Amino acid sequence: MTFSNDDIKQITQHGLSPEDVSKQIQMIKKGPAYTSVLSPAKIGDGIIKLTEKEQNHFLDVFEQQKEQYQLQKFVPASGAATRMFKDWVYFYKHYRPGRDYYERFINKHQLTNFEPFLDDFLGNFPGFAFYQDLMDVIQKKLPGFFQLDENEQAWQLIHFTLSDEGLGYITQPKALIKFHRYHKNDIRTALDEQVQEALAYTSTPMQKARVLFTINPAKQTDFDAHIQNLSQQLPVKIETTVQKPSTDAVMLDSENMLVRDEKGQIVFRPGGHGSLIYNLQDLDSDIVFIKNIDNVQKGEAQNISTQYKKILAGYLMDLMVQSKKYLTQLRDEKPIHEDLQAIEDFAKNRLNIHFIEGYDTLNNSGKRKYLAYKINRPLRVAGMVKNTGEPGGGPFWAKDKNGLKSLQIVEKAQIDTRQPGQAKALSESTHFNPVDLVLSLKDFEGNKFDLTEYINPEAAIISQKTYGDKPVKIYEHPGLWNGAMDGWNTVFIEVPLETFSPVKTVTDLLKPEHQ
């Protein structure tokens, strides 16, 4: 594709090259590259179910070894709360209190994030952690609120929740929405809860807890103010980072032409959460915990979540110790026979590594090189919960970019369900990926891995969306826990469903686990 001088200037300002953009365009035109799944990972076949004794063992491993590692939590938190309030936004824009009746409007427009009856909607509103803030604003700006007709009250509640005249939640990051109320002086945002949890497993007597949030740079001031206040109250180091402009992506219209704005400039957008692999690369920590910003627990459930984070980390530490032992042997001792067999068993049975065809025909030197190559790479231990119908990725045995069988986290959109075998594998899946990951980012000699070497570029996601009122095709980098970690060594462990309580819509905050 030919770019004008202005195009090239704009492209380079993003840290990209014309060749980079051309590759994105070709991938969009080509369409999605589906992942070839072989079968779902299940208990005993790709997913480990730890006994109570094993759980206690790995908890002990974590407590005994945590001082040896620099620990950090990494939370993707750049998303706005717009989708969380989608139905409320529609109600706010289209509902006419003096002319529409609540129940008729809700049923007609199938707004599922509303109670079916107005009395229930109004009666449940005090259950939101932000309710007192909301009523403080209404008392100042609409003192006659309780004299209004109930249909008008419903609209005003949403008006003052969403608009800048009130709480301004329609443009706020989800991280800064108040999620949980413990008591009058302890009301926590999603960010607060993530920090509270991190205190339990990233701090040691010798180091402060550390949390890194990826944020929208347009909201930097809001985050800074909140974080400064929180850092003064708690022994934690909280940092922020933004997706790199060099990971921005282009869009194509229905004619496969670059989408441009009214000034004729190319429209760039953030390239999806897979872009964050470059932010992970910047970290100098040994072990990193990853969790989505909206998956937060309250009270006892948070204790359960914290316990299993430690179990996953303890399991990871055990693998790291064993990997270092065997990689050191491969480097220094040139093992053969039984010693080499022990390393092969570890690779196959603990790291789920499938060997290339013809491995058995290699001489000892060839086997040692291959084992070192396969074992010395980034490692992730991922928690998996039983599938309850949530959208998102799941654990599968799949073919990696080299055609070898490997454990992968695969999104439904990456599976070509038109193929009978693929649809069958998806339908038989028993577990779901709640984005509950613990990562090892350094090799056995303490050097940082180059994480970009393990990305499968063919796993980029091509999605259909709209820009303005027109359909567009969008390029997204291989997902952070999908194609961006395609070449990692991977272990899946079942964790309780209590560790997964996401807030995808505002009314999820009224569920018992958030009350």
> How is the biggest beta sheet arranged?
10 strands, mixed
Shape: globular
Number of strands: 18
Q: Which strand-content bin applies to the residues?
A: 15-25%
What structural category arises from helix and sheet content?
Answer: alpha/beta
Low-confidence stretches: none
Mean pLDDT: 95
How many helices does DSSP assign? 15
Q: Structurally, how many domains make up the residues?
A: 2
**What portion of residues is helical?**
25-40%
| Alpha-carbon distance between the two ends | 54 Å
**Rg on CA atoms, Å:** 25 Å
Your description of this structure?
By secondary structure, this protein is α/β, with parallel strands linked by helices. It has 15 helices and 18 strands. Strands 2, 3, 4, 7, 8, 10, 11, 14, 15 and 18 form a ten-stranded mixed beta sheet that branches. The longest helix is centred in the middle third of the chain and has 33 residues, at 300-332. The chain is globular, with a radius of gyration of 25 Å. The model has no long low-confidence stretch (mean pLDDT 95).
Describe the structure using short key phrases.
515 residues, alpha/beta, ten-stranded mixed sheet, three-stranded antiparallel sheet, 15 helices, 35% helix, 18% strand, globular
Helix and strand topology:
Elements: H1 5-13, H2 18-30, E1 37-40, E2 42-43, E3 46-48, H3 52-65, E4 71-76, H4 86-94, H5 102-109, H6 118-124, H7 131-141, H8 150-162, E5 178-183, E6 186-189, H9 190-201, E7 209-214, H10 220-233, E8 236-241, E9 251-252, H11 277-281, E10 287-291, H12 300-332, H13 337-349, H14 364-375, E11 379-386, E12 394-399, E13 405-410, H15 420-427, E14 431-432, E15 436-440, E16 461-467, E17 470-476, E18 489-494
Parallel strand pairs: 2-3, 3-18, 4-7, 4-10, 7-8, 11-18
Antiparallel strand pairs: 1-12, 5-6, 9-17, 10-15, 11-14, 11-15, 12-13, 16-17
